[in-house]
């Protein structure tokens, strides 16, 4: 009869009077009677009167010391949905806040989905939105789900599975986010048992089987830990932790570990009185058993996003048994178990401020502090959200899969999070169905679609805005490989060109000659030599000379190499061919290649001032020409002088894009009231294309002159001088 006794409104009210005022307790009672009447004649599947469910939900919340409005909402949470009563009716009886809470919970209940993926995404978004309005909606919803899970055996199997899966997919992660570990564990255990009864049964039986064997080792370790703390005069309690079934199952599944591998680890928690003692205990246990390198984590100094604080370390116990140890204070323990619920749990004990509480409750205090400063509850919740999820955003694939990314992450980070191949071949993205730049930082709740194209490659520019390690390392890795193969290819072409003056080609050189030269140069492979040449670290002509000399010792003087033929630039060489920013060469311009050490080749126009001094030096410059099939777009600078006229920039821009040229940059330098100069940087295919663009621009009425800027050096100096005044 004891259980039935607990489940009465009188019992609940008794408990509530420990932390709520009489008026508040009475309004909770009033809500109960209202619900009892509303649900009159309704029964749960277990046969109990329906009102037993809202009562149980309220009592879960009372264990968390939730406020009277949350408890009233808990009593009424199924009234709108299951009885004919409206929100307006609740509002007139219990006020705005309670009505809004009930409405919020009801709305969460109503969501139905066509697919599981959609369910996951939609649900999460709805949860996030509900949370943004009032965190208490989620607390009521969590308590509701908890009671439904505790009584899930009464449901038919298919409904049981659906609810269990949703609990594992949505509610357990949310409880985790909110730091409510006890609730999370209960969700996982109940969900696992309901969704996979066979698997849960097998693991449970296996755990029971080995518990006997473990018992002795556990108590040995526990005794030695306790003795050690005692000896050092450090007060604390040591708890042996047993892994719960779902976490064993998840580890077996995701980390592909065997049951015995997981169970061979012994886990303990040491709970102490102060932060100071935590670190002392750490020192002491590291003395007792050897720590496993790289396993120490200080979540006290750097708490987890959900407020979790603790020290973690792993030790080699006797016979090399791994021992996982968590060290924390009582307050951290309470935070770790209750998370956001501590916000309410501790609120009432504020009249008895114990110094020990204060430090570990910093997070909760911080929230209360914010609540004081925040003008309204919405603002407060906004802060709480940032506090709970400070560094994370949640975005969705078009199919509804959720990805968690750090703040500031872009579509490129997202693409790499999906798969390395997606990242490597992404070319564009749609953020919430709108085409957006790849560099745009993503926001929580957005749906991101990555557009890929085969044969594309990562852009080095991405490195300037990606934030995840995965994206960064993958891009670097790709570019490194790419640069390697591109420089080998360019090196081969340069070497072939140099060899041509000796009547040879790389492929016709005898293997012994190659081997001998590689040895002289202390290189491991021909590819290395070619890469060196392609990167500009080694001269092609010198290498050609060595490779063709009959006598391996190079005695003959380096004669002025004769430049024979020229290297054709195809526009598709990649990172090892760059186009000079001073003279902006485009196909059709006479050009020259400057070998720049480590960077490969920089193409200048033949007449560029910057190249004038070295253009005849064969060690530094290579004769090059445009391949007739050259592809790509090339940047070129234009100066447009025109008469001021309203909207001339727009006219200019449409004219240029109308001629199929992209505008990269546009800036106006006003000369006087009547005339302006516009500097443009545009992309064109070649000189013919450029001529067409210039002709069209010249035809615009206010334009008086259009010139291509050939070398920026002189202009730069003038600008610098002007700038220094
Ligand atoms: Mn319910």
Describe this structure as you would to a colleague.
- This protein starts with a helix and ends with a helix.
- The strands form 5 sheets. Strands 1, 2, 3, 4, 5 and 6 form a 6-stranded mixed β-sheet that branches. Strands 12-16-14-15-13 form a 5-stranded mixed β-sheet, covered by helices on one side. Strands 18-19-17-20 form a 4-stranded antiparallel β-sheet, covered by helices on one side.
- The chain is extended and about 100 Å long.
- It is of the alpha+beta class.
- It has 30 helices and 20 strands.
- The protein has 5 domains: 187 residues, Orthogonal Bundle (Hypothetical protein af1432), CATH 1.10.3210; 147 residues, Beta Polymerase, domain 2, CATH 3.30.460.10; 77 residues, Beta-grasp domain (Ubiquitin-like (UB roll), Roll); 92 residues, no CATH class; 160 residues, ACT domain (Alpha-Beta Plaits), CATH 3.30.70.260.
- A hairpin with a 5-residue loop joins strand 7 and strand 8.
- Bound molecules: manganese (II) ion.
- The site of manganese (II) ion has 4 residues, from loops.
